[in-house]
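Lab notebook, page 48
Experiment: co-folding of the full assembly
Goal: obtain a model of how the components sit together before planning crosslinking
Operator: M.T.
Materials (sequences as entered):
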Amino acid sequence: MLTTVELAVVTTILLLLFATPLAWWLARSNRWWKEIVGAVAALPLVLPPTVIGFYVLIALGPQSPLMALLHPFGVRTLAFTFEGLVIGSLFYSLPFAVQPLRTAFEGIGDRPLEIAATMGAGPLDRFATVAIPLARRGFLSGAILVFSHTIGEFGVVLMIGGSIPGKTEVLSTRIYQLVESLQFEEAHRVAGGLVIFSFLALLALLLVDRRIGNIKP
Amino acid sequence: MIIAVDLSGRIGSEFMLDVAFEVPASGVTALLGPSGSGKTSLLRSLAGLDRIPGTIRIGADIWQDGAIFVPAHRRRVGYVFQGAGLLPHLSVRRNLEYAVRRAPEGQFQIEDVVARTGISALMDRMPAKLSGGEAQRASIARALLTQPRLMLMDEPLSALDGEARSRLLDALEEVLARIPIPVFYVTHDEAEAARLSTRSIRLKDGKIEKVLG
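Observation: model returned without errors.
Model output:
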C-alpha cells in the first residue's frame, strides 16, 4: 500500500516537472517535426505495458550502457528496485501528463501572452504568470490522471519490479499474487478498494474541471 | 523626435506589407483603410508582436534594423487590442498592477488613470464580467500604466455601438488630447479618425495610399 502511494506521488511530481516544458513546446512550436516528438510522447498509450517494461528492464540491467555510467557510483542495476519502478512509471504515464497540459496550453491562445508582453513581461515571466495560471485545469487533470494511472499500472511494474513484497510490490501486482495463491478474500478487499479509489479520483477530476472551468482565457 | 518606419515583407503566404513613412513623435496618427489593408499588421510590427523585415526607429532608439529586433516586452508600448485586452485570470485591479509592477516610474499614476478612464467601480471585477465598453476602458488604463513610449490602439471602439460607443469616444478624445506621447490609432471610420487624430495614413492592400497632415 505504502509503496503504491509513494510510487504514484513521486511519479506525479516528477512527471509534471518533465512534461510541462515538453507540452509547452508541443503547443507553441511551429517546427514541422514536432508531431514526430508528439507521437513518441504518446506511444505509451498504445504500447502493451510489457513492451515498455521490457525495454526499461533492459536499459536498467547491469549490462546496459546506461547503467555502465552509474557503475563508478556503486550502482550496478536499477532493475527490481523502487527507483526502477519510478523510471518505468514515468514512461508509462507520460502521455497522461503531456496531453492535458498540451491541450490546456493550446487553449490559451496568443492573445493573453501578447497582452503580457506589451506590459513588459519577458518569456519566462509570461510563462509563470500567464501560461501556468491559465493552464491550471490541465495541471490538475494531468496530476489526477497520472496519479490514478500509476496506481493502476501492472505490466510495467511486474516486468521491472518483480513484485518483491515491501520493496517493489504494489497493489495491482499484490492482487495477482493473492489470486495465484487462492487468497480470494484478501484479493476482494484490495480490488474493491482500488475500484472505490478510482471512482473517487475520476469524480474529483470531473468536479475540479467544472469548478475551474468557468474562467475561460 | 521622429518615428521612422520602413517595412517590407510577407506575413503568412498571402499578405504583403510594404510601407515607409516618418511622422513626428507626438500627436495621434490615424491608420485608416479597409479591412485587410495592413493596419493591424503595421501596428503589431510597431509593437514587436510581428516581425516584418525593415527598420523601425523611435527618436534615437532603434527597435528594428537588420539583425536588431527589440522584443515586445522591451519596447514599452501601450497596446489596446481589438476585443479582449485584459489578462482573463486577473481582476481589473490585478491587471493594472501587472502593468505597474513591470513599468518604470512615470507620468501616469494609477489613481489618476483609473479616474480618467472612469473604471473606479470596476476594479474588483473579473474581465469576463465586464461589458465591451468597460473592458475597453480597463484595457486603455492598463496600456497607459505601462508608461508607454508609444500608444498603439487597434479599433478600440469596434466592438461597441450606440451610447457606449459615443461615451468611450468622448473619454478617448479627452485622454488622447492630454497625453504627451505619440499614438497610432487604427480605425476604418473616417469620422472617428477626424475627431481623434492630428494626421492620418491611409493604407490599401498593404501599401500607403495617402498621408494627410
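Interpretation: Chain B has a mean pLDDT of 93.
Next step: discuss with group before ordering constructs.
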